[in-house]
Amino acid sequence: MPNQDPSDPIVVWHDHAVTRADREQLAGHRGCVVWFTGLSGSGKSTVANAVDRLLFERGVRTYLLDGDNVRHGLNATPQILAERYGDEFARRFGLGFGQQDREENIRRVGAVAKLMCDAGLITLTAFVSPYRSDRDAVRASMDAGDFVEVFVDAPLDVCESRDPKGLYRKARAGEIKDFTGVSAPYEAPESPELQLAAGSATPDELARQVIAHLESAGILS
Amino acid sequence: MPNQDPSDPIVVWHDHAVTRADREQLAGHRGCVVWFTGLSGSGKSTVANAVDRLLFERGVRTYLLDGDNVRHGLNATPQILAERYGDEFARRFGLGFGQQDREENIRRVGAVAKLMCDAGLITLTAFVSPYRSDRDAVRASMDAGDFVEVFVDAPLDVCESRDPKGLYRKARAGEIKDFTGVSAPYEAPESPELQLAAGSATPDELARQVIAHLESAGILS
Question: What is the pLDDT of residues B176-194, one digit of tens each?
Fold first, then answer.
């Protein structure tokens, strides 16, 4: 029990705070961030979901951050924010498609992933995140070994032929500008922790490669 | 195993994604957000840390968001962001002390807490969060029952006599402007899920009241 002075019931307990090491011990594995990057249609979300499922079946504590769960909240568009907060607020903090917006999008995701890592979760993120500097800024914000960059490497023509959301077709038609791989660059990682040949293997095979890496890195035992 | 078409190895697996219900079943308890609000010096952080410790000892999955872990990352100041991202970016996204900044501070914390709730964590937050509208916006973003507002209610004179960080002294000396309770309002919750008499009980007693509430609300069994 902490030391308490009855004359001052609010004692600073910071020494008794639950630490990352405590949470990891309870979980039975380390926290980390597994950052999937690659072209639209490369299979990032599919592989990340498959990894999530395999880890879940092992009782591992995980979470998956992707466009689906950040787009309406943390990284909401100006249009969404304007309804509750007004136009000026929405213009400042809402995230559209400009360069600053893109950088801030990845910065916020990185900051949340870092917090989830601190909570002892194996945190999976699935975003195109095409710029090396944006990904490297997230890596630099974290402790060594906590950031596991996974390059989901599928050839552009394979991604474009899959075109799961019809985005390549729109980009080729000029309906989307600055589209990664078509009218904006994709900067492949120079030394990712893991590179997946995502044009020629099943999601299940790729997911097992990720798990094997986490084991060999000592994150999972 | 999911259905796979070997001619197109990247199959949409969204049906197999791990759900919140899955994560909660694995954890053995529900996720939620326990939002501590109150004056500086009321004991928010102390009680939240005590709750965190008690839950940890029961094997519950938790996390605590407070100024210590968001101030340098997710909600970094303009000064911190300027180093890496430049001045224009820092002015737009960095959070200082203006009204918009304060609203965005709480909005981002709320969005992250909601994600952590979805991850099956009992997520504790400890911020003064003096404005009702800011707290209510977080509540409105979440499902019914997920947001547990805890008013850490200690009289101003008690908080000021504790003055753990010397902030009241500075505020009275005019060195801090718009300081909650001195030169800016604190809007107490009108119907919080729980109100703690934090001027007259020990942190341990108050923490046990929070745990009892979580049990009676069916979040913990």
Answer: 999 999 999 999 999 999 9
**Rounded Cα gap, residues B156 and B41, in angstroms:** 9
Q: How far apart are CA B87 and CA A56, in angstroms?
A: 42
The 10s digit of each residue's pLDDT in B152-182 is: 999 999 999 999 899 999 999 999 999 999 9
Pairwise CB contact (< 8 Å): A16 & B53? yes
Cβ A169 vs Cβ A139: under 8 Å = no
Q: Please say whether the beta carbons of A166 and A121 come within 8 A.
A: no
Residues of B in contact with A161 (CB under 8 A): none
Query: Distance between CA atoms of B117 and B24, rounded to whole angstroms?
Result: 10
- For the complex shown, is ipTM > 0.90? yes
Query: Angle CA(B58)–CA(B60)–CA(B63) in degrees, nearest 5?
Result: 125
Inter-chain residue contact A100 with B92, CB threshold 8 Å:
yes
> From its phi and psi, is residue B163 left (phi > 0), alpha (psi between -120 and 50) or beta?
left
Angstroms from A197 CA to nearest CA on chain B: 12
The answer to whether the CB atoms of A63 and B202 lie below 8 A apart is no
Residue range B29-69+100-216, CATH number = 3.40.50.300
pTM of the entire predicted model: 0.93
Comparing alpha-carbon positions, the chain B residue that sits nearest to A61 is B23
Point out the residue among A10, A46, A111 whose CB comes nearest to the CB of B13.
Answer: A46
Distance (Å, rounded) from C-alpha A59 to C-alpha B121? Answer: 15
Q: In this complex, which of A93, A116, A162 lies closest to B10 when CB atoms are compared? A: A162
Domain borders along chain A are 28-66+110-216
Q: Fold for A28-66+110-216, please state it.
A: Rossmann fold (3.40.50)
